[in-house]
Design goal:
The chain is of the alpha+beta class. It contains 2 helices and 8 strands; from the N terminus they run βββααβββββ.
């Protein structure tokens, strides 16, 4: 029977896996991560392959699940915060409609005009149409007047 020990994530891109008789191997892959499904599969594999005469310590099991729950909660909070930030940016941009703004264009020149409309890109970023020119990034605004 193969014994599988826990996986310790040392960084988001490096994980250390240890199996009986194989030593330690470090994986370095910038796209490697252990998502919730991977964590649960690993946890179930640990339970299935544990030695019945020396089962996993219950406190260790509870600690792993608590860590998993905490990480999952932080991921959910991060997604919610991103949605709130996107909504706030769009709301701020809508408040500029009808106002005269000055912005720096792609050539580095200062342009001035009235904000006519606000659009949202596929990724949720607000863009302005100023004096008939669409796609102005609100972060490029230099001045806003009434």
């Amino acid at each position: 029977m193969t014994e599988i020990s826990s996986t310790t994530a040392t960084t988001p891109t490096t994980a250390t896996h240890t199996a009986a008789g194989s030593g330690t191997a470090a994986l370095a892959n910038p796209k490697a991560s252990l998502d919730k499904d991977g964590f649960l599969k690993l946890f179930i594999a640990q339970l299935q392959h544990q030695d019945p005469s020396a089962p996993m310590d219950a406190s260790e099991s509870i600690a792993q699940m608590a860590s998993f729950s905490m990480v999952e909660g932080m991921n959910n909070m991060q997604a919610t915060n991103s949605n709130i930030a996107s909504s706030l940016n769009t709301s701020s941009a809508v408040g500029l409609i009808g106002r005269t703004v000055s912005y720096v264009d792609d050539k580095g020149e200062l342009q001035t005009g009235k904000v006519e409309r606000v659009s949202t890109t596929k990724d949720g970023q607000a863009t302005l149409t100023v004096a008939g020119k669409p796609g102005i990034d609100p972060s490029k605004l230099a001045e806003v007047t009434a």
